[in-house]
Design goal:
313 residues, alpha/beta, Rossmann fold, 2 domains, seven-stranded parallel beta sheet, five-stranded parallel beta sheet, globular, binds 2-keto-D-gluconic acid
């Protein structure tokens, strides 16, 4: 029996690549020198696309595959997949929620602590010999017991809020509607920022949330306020954030995602009041193995005619 043809948009670890190659004819788009020509050659036979949260599947890629039935995303964010193009053709789309929730929330808290306590610069203080030469490290900002705002109370936002409770934080959240939780609901992101010392951005990236963290939200967070983003760069007006960080009108930012990543705006690299991470919130062995299995299980379910495990379209 002919193995289904699957377009592979980006790299996967070996533990996923081996079973994918065994089950499907994998066409590695990311390796093609001339990607348009590659799509024209293999697109007509492609029945599935295996992609990642950071890579997605464009309308052009989808259009080049007239037999496309399913797109399986390795990641919870599917904003880089042209969902409208999929819905117009009845193409199924799956992602990998839940298996990565705890890791992403863990990194959000770790970044917030690292930013608040200056742990990056403190590590440099030790490594450079400054501690011995210049004495104690400068005082930083307390984390526990402060006010935290969670922008987006989905799986990841709720996991962040639960962790913040453990740090004795006064937690409030903003979401499309109030939820049956004990935390305070604040509809307006500006008002949420104004009552927060730390603002965690954990909402899915959509056209409606683009630049939801705008100049007004950043100004409301204020000179000692700190921003933490583990969602998507598109949720933040990066120009407004950079201006605030450079002028000191915000206390700092801890970011795991960037416009144009991995080539982030070089202005970030000149800043001291930031924690910069390489989009690795789900990047642990345990979680990436679970993500890969779920991505593959969705493909296998589709081609076996079984219900999809985690469909989003
Ligand atoms: C991706 C992410 O999986 O889950 C997401 O949406 O952003 C990441 O965890 C990443 O693209 C993995 O390569």
């Amino acid at each position: 029996m002919t193995k289904p043809a699957v377009l592979q948009v980006g790299t996967y670890p070996e533990w996923d690549q081996v079973p994918l190659d065994a089950a499907y004819t994998m066409h590695r788009w990311f390796e093609a020198a001339d990607k348009a020509a590659f799509l024209a050659a293999v697109g007509p036979e492609v029945r599935g696309i295996a992609t990642r949260g950071d890579l997605g599947a464009s309308a052009e890629m989808i259009a080049a595959c007239p037999k496309l039935e399913v797109i399986s995303v390795y990641g919870v964010g599917y904003d880089a997949v042209d969902i409208a193009a999929c819905k117009a053709r009845g193409i199924r789309v799956t992602n990998t929620p839940d298996v990565l929730t705890e890791d992403v929330a863990d990194l959000a808290l770790g970044m917030a602590l690292m930013l608040s306590r200056g742990m990056g610069a403190a590590a440099d203080w030790v490594a450079s010999g400054d501690w011995a030469a210049k004495g104690g490290f400068a005082l930083q900002r307390k984390f526990s017991g402060k006010r935290a705002g969670v922008l987006g109370l989905g799986r990841i936002g709720a996991a962040v809020a639960r962790r913040l409770e453990g740090f004795g934080m006064d937690v409030a959240y903003s979401s499309t509607a109030p939820k049956a939780v004990a935390w305070e609901f604040v509809a307006d992101p500006v008002a949420l920022a104004a009552r927060s010392d730390f603002l965690f951005v954990t909402l899915a990236a959509t056209a409606a949330t683009r630049h939801i963290v705008n100049r007004d939200v950043i100004a409301a967070l204020g000179k000692t306020g700190m921003l933490v983003n583990v969602s998507r760069a598109a949720n933040i007006d990066e120009e407004a954030l950079l201006a605030a960080l450079e002028s000191g009108s915000i206390g700092g930012a801890a970011l795991d995602v960037f416009e144009g990543e991995p080539k982030l705006n070089p202005r970030f690299l000149a800043l001291k009041n930031v924690v910069l991470q390489p989009h690795h919130a789900s990047g642990t062995f345990e979680t990436r193995q679970a993500m890969g299995k779920l991505m593959r299980d969705n493909l296998a379910a589709h081609f076996a005619g079984r219900p999809l495990l985690t469909a989003v379209a």
